[in-house]
């Protein structure tokens, strides 16, 4: 059994919880984020796979999204920045880049659908955690799907 499966399960459960709260209340619970960060760090330390480079990369991504969120007037929330920090710390820089890019592609496709088909306003606000969860799920499918 792959040792990373436990990591993926805990990350997935955290993303599901954050997605539900983001959909219902438009917020991400900080205790879930803190638990995820502590679990992921502990997991990597326990398995001697902790990478200071990945931790630094996760911090940089988080800070970058915090700045973008501030500049955009809150279009990207602080919780979304923390979710990308968690996925980066857990999965590494390259996987996190994939998740970030796919999250934005999925959100863009949904925005086009909502504006064109559902006639929503161009400034309609959507929760972003569902797209992060979807991208994470696609990542897992991609690494475990036999070729």
Mean pLDDT level: 92
Q: Name the poorly predicted regions.
A: none
Major sheet description:
none
How much of the sequence lies in strands comes to under 5%
Percent range for helical residues?
A: over 70%
The count of domains is 1
Distance between the termini: 19 Å
- Helix/strand/pairing class, anyone? mainly alpha
What is the tally of helical segments?
6
Radius of gyration: 15 Å
* Shape field: globular
Number of strands: 0
* SSE ordering: HHHHHH
Task: Provide tags for this entry.
single chain, 147 residues, mainly alpha, 6 helices
How would you describe what is shown here?
The two termini are 19 Å apart. Helix 1 (4-25) packs antiparallel against helix 4 (78-91), helix 4 (78-91) runs antiparallel to helix 5 and helix 5 packs across helix 6 (129-144). The protein is globular, with a radius of gyration of 15 Å. The chain is 77% helix and 0% strand. With 147 residues, the chain is mainly alpha-helical. It has one domain (4-144). It has helices at 4-25, 30-46, 52-71, 78-91, 93-116, 129-144. 28% of the residues are buried. It contains 6 helices and no strands.
